[in-house]
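Quick start: load a record and inspect it. Here is Response regulator transcription factor:
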Amino acid sequence: MHKKNKITIFLIEDDPSQLKSIESLLEFKGFVFQSFKNAMDFLTLSDISRPAVLVSDMRLPDLNGVELYKALTDRGEDIPIIFISGESSIQQSIDAMKQGAIEFLVKPFDINDLTNAIEKATRLEHKRVNLKTLLKNLSPREKQVFDLLIQGLNNSELMKKINVSLPTAKQYKSEVMRKLGVKSLSELMNLSNQTV
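Running the structure step on this input writes:
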């Protein structure tokens, strides 16, 4: 495992030759990966170690990509997904992106396209994992303030919503931003939009 690739790639592909081809690429690039021939085998994992990226065929024998994404979100998993497919339906691509896919690649795809998609997903995953770690440092009240701030509430709306004085609302806002390492509300919104 190369030090730069401290991420696990979960690969779901039912076509044996395609599976072998992608595994060879991941191995060559120094990624740690785990392969599955169907979605249900992947979903039986009791713990998906993070940081991680999922590369999955859109059409599997047991679940399609949309059903897989729903199963993951029902479990509270927000792992970045790259869908691959042998079909080039524009609607399928749009549906995949609506379901939260980072990328949709049509087979046969260029290995550089897959590598670039994995790098993009890896950056997003590191941001998500980092934000989750930072959010653990917030008190329950600060987490509530964070949730309200990313909804776009201003200081006076925040004050009314959590039933505190204006100076106290400003103090909570300031503390949330300090703990998350952001200097402005726009930075906070940008951080949450990219990662939550």
